[in-house]
Amino acid sequence: MGDQMQFIVEKLNQEPFRKNYNLISFDSLESLQLLQLLSDVLGEIDPKHAVDIREELPEQTAKRMLNLLGILKYKPPGTVSDLSAFRQGLVTGSKSVIHPVLHWLLQRTNELKKRAYLARFLVKLEVPAEFLQDDTVAEFNKQYEELMEAFKNLHKEHEHLKISGLSTAEIRRDISAMEEEKDQLAKRVERLKKRVETVQNHQRMLEIARQLRLEKEREESLAQQKQEQKSQLFHAEQRLQRAQVQLKEMQHVVADSKPESLMKKLEEEINFNSYLVTEKIPREVESKKTSVYFLQKVATEPAMTQADVTALESEINEINAQMNQLIEKRMMKYEPTDSKFSMYRQQASIISRKKEAKAEELQAAKEEMSSLERQMEQKSSQAHELQGSEVLTEEEFKQYVSKLRSKNTFYKKKRLEIAEMTAEYGILQRTEELLRQRHEAIQQQLQAIEEKKGISGYSYTQEELERVSAVKSEMDEVKGQTLDNMSEMVKKLNAMVAEKKASLAPVIKELRQLRQNCQELTQECDEKKIQYDSCAAGLETNRSALEQEVKGLLEECAQEESNYHYINCMKRTLEIQLQRAKEEMKAYVSPDPQERRKAVREQYTRIILEQENLGKKLREKQKVVRESHGPNMKQMKMWQDFEQLMECKRECFLKQQNQAAIGQVIQEGGKDRLVL
């Protein structure tokens, strides 16, 4: 603690703090002063935290400091309970909490300044997933991430440039070279302009070339927009498919859901999961741990031969036999045959095995069902892509059948109504025919009466006059109404035209001014674009030349570095060989016989003598084996013959014994018959 406080006081007395503390004055600071001091140090690292803590609440101060310490990756010592104590000590200004924080901050101030600066741009703003479903929010979030990546790359390039340390003289030389190239390009452009001026219609050709370039740029931008819209459409279709699948699943669940069935399903699932958690999975974990333990034990042991394996197998068989004997003794001793516990144990073991088997079958069925559901989703998506009809579920098929039934009943009802209407239509048609016949008879009688009276055709002429007068009155009314409508429409149109002219007059004036400005700006933009293209072409050529030069220099540097490492390795190898040769020469010329024996020459000489002696012994042994090979083979043949002879004698002896036993049995049977 004394060294820590001494370091803190020394750093605080230096720039930029200049506090003029000593150990006594620093140790006598109150909690509020310590918090202000910590806030000043944090403000030096991040200027946003240079505030007066008297102007904010203690909770805000603690939250602000904890947030910055978290960004700076400060790890307080201790466990979770110690972390809560650390937060409490930071709020109250405890010395045991603030002194280590100050020591840690003052040790690495420059590094923490850089980290705080980067945190302003690289601490990602977390957006909830439900908000990302909106296309606008998702697009802004994507732009935000792209800008963050661009900032990372720019910062890396900046640091690389700072480390590389380009001198101002080199930059000035580059600028002068670029200016010379710019002058050359300007002269070349002037020569090209003079050459082009002699061509007929050069202004029109330049204008056409400019329009072609603009159209190509527009075509590229439109192609890019088309690609983006295609990707957006594809993503939207995917989201729509997922939403439709979720909606169907939810509808299916809601259609079949009742409180009792849901509770029953939940109870079954809870029972199955509790069985897996409490019984099956712990047992499997324990067996896996045991097998891993034995495998690790086997892996740590040395390699075993076939003899060791055979010995272990025999030992395992013996132990298994002993275990079976002990189990039988225990059953005979503690479990009589009339006891029912054995039966209950057997039943319990059978039930537990059945339970495990059913649990495994259920788990396999669930996995198979999930795989089938995934396959069904894939097939439905493929069918949707092929613009096919979707497969109906059971509930949807039931609804479809019920709709068909209701439509069938509605169809039958309408069919009956049509039959009734047809019958009524036949009756009315017959009535009309009768009335027409009666009308014709009355007309004939009327004509006969008119002929008798001498006024033939009077009724027909009167009907025609009435009909014509009625039609004329209707036409007059329609003409009058049409003329009134036309006059009103003309008045409205004249009023609307006057209003539009009055409202469009200032807009037309403003549009003329804007068109003139647009032409001027377009002309200026074209001139700037030409200047930019020429400058960009020059800079691009210069950049490509510099890139080629840098690439060649890097390759040359890599080759030289490889040569350096190769020469260094060869040098080290030669030094080691030279050192070994010196040691060998020193040991060889040494008068001490012990040192001389350590020489490689002496060791190889001694090994050669040993191998020669061994070869001599092996040759003598080979000679002895060759000389005794013939007698030994004869002796082995004699022993084999002797073994065959003894085997034959044994078989003869066994046959003789069997024949004697059979004769004895026959004699005993004859005696029994005589007695009877």
TrEMBL record:
<dbReference type="GO" id="GO:0007283">
    <property type="term" value="P:spermatogenesis"/>
</dbReference>
<keyword id="KW-0970">Cilium biogenesis/degradation</keyword>
<keyword id="KW-0597">Phosphoprotein</keyword>
<dbReference type="InterPro" id="IPR029600">
    <property type="entry name" value="IFT81"/>
</dbReference>
<comment type="function">
    <text>Component of the intraflagellar transport (IFT) complex B: together with IFT74, forms a tubulin-binding module that specifically mediates transport of tubulin within the cilium. Binds tubulin via its CH (calponin-homology)-like region. Required for ciliogenesis. Required for proper regulation of SHH signaling. Plays an important role during spermatogenesis by modulating the assembly and elongation of the sperm flagella.</text>
</comment>
<dbReference type="GO" id="GO:0060271">
    <property type="term" value="P:cilium assembly"/>
</dbReference>
<keyword id="KW-0206">Cytoskeleton</keyword>
<feature type="coiled-coil region">
    <location>
        <begin position="309"/>
        <end position="389"/>
    </location>
</feature>
<dbReference type="GO" id="GO:0030992">
    <property type="term" value="C:intraciliary transport particle B"/>
</dbReference>
<keyword id="KW-0969">Cilium</keyword>
<dbReference type="GO" id="GO:0042073">
    <property type="term" value="P:intraciliary transport"/>
</dbReference>
<protein>
    <recommendedName>
        <fullName>Intraflagellar transport protein 81 homolog</fullName>
    </recommendedName>
</protein>
<dbReference type="InterPro" id="IPR041146">
    <property type="entry name" value="IFT81_CH"/>
</dbReference>
<dbReference type="Pfam" id="PF18383">
    <property type="entry name" value="IFT81_CH"/>
</dbReference>
<dbReference type="GO" id="GO:0015631">
    <property type="term" value="F:tubulin binding"/>
</dbReference>
<feature type="domain" description="IFT81 calponin homology">
    <location>
        <begin position="3"/>
        <end position="126"/>
    </location>
</feature>
<keyword id="KW-0221">Differentiation</keyword>
<keyword id="KW-0963">Cytoplasm</keyword>
<feature type="coiled-coil region">
    <location>
        <begin position="483"/>
        <end position="563"/>
    </location>
</feature>
<dbReference type="InterPro" id="IPR043016">
    <property type="entry name" value="IFT81_N_sf"/>
</dbReference>
<keyword id="KW-0007">Acetylation</keyword>
<feature type="coiled-coil region">
    <location>
        <begin position="137"/>
        <end position="253"/>
    </location>
</feature>
<keyword id="KW-0966">Cell projection</keyword>
<dbReference type="GO" id="GO:0030154">
    <property type="term" value="P:cell differentiation"/>
</dbReference>
<dbReference type="GO" id="GO:0036064">
    <property type="term" value="C:ciliary basal body"/>
</dbReference>
<keyword id="KW-0744">Spermatogenesis</keyword>
<comment type="similarity">
    <text>Belongs to the IFT81 family.</text>
</comment>
<keyword id="KW-0175">Coiled coil</keyword>
